[in-house]
Amino acid sequence: MSVSLRLSRGGSKKRPYYKIVIANSRAPRDGKYLEQVGTYNPLLAKDDENRVRIVEDRVRYWLGVGAQPTDRVARMLDKAGIKERAATNNPKAGEPGKKAKERAEDKAAKIAEAEEARIAAEEAAKAAAAAPAVEDAPAAEEAATEEAPAEAAAEEQAEG
Asked: What is the homologous superfamily of the domain 3-80 according to CATH?
């Protein structure tokens, strides 16, 4: 039988209150337990002495006979100075998930496309503003060259 040191929830809805208990690891969370060794009231301020109450000698006994604390209880025991807990390191804790990364890439691509379209529109507007002055001159030359042969042809017909 494996024994664990864990929290058993009590209290009413939205008003939790926990017992720190020694229980069979296969027993239900709020089910039968072997011994209650403390209490935890998360509604009290963090510096309140009644927030976590632990019967230290009983906890030490159960740890001595092989009881395994859950992560939350291990944190409490470490803070109380009963059992050292190795600091955990999760380097991926702040990293977004796969779907969030895909969404960010899609958003960045859309922003880049919009920026390119904006730049292209600005360049087209600049070209359109500069083009009429440039286009008028060749159009006038073309008109002049078209009129000249027409006039020459008219003169030839008049003579002939």
From this structure: Ribosomal protein S16 (3.30.1320.10)
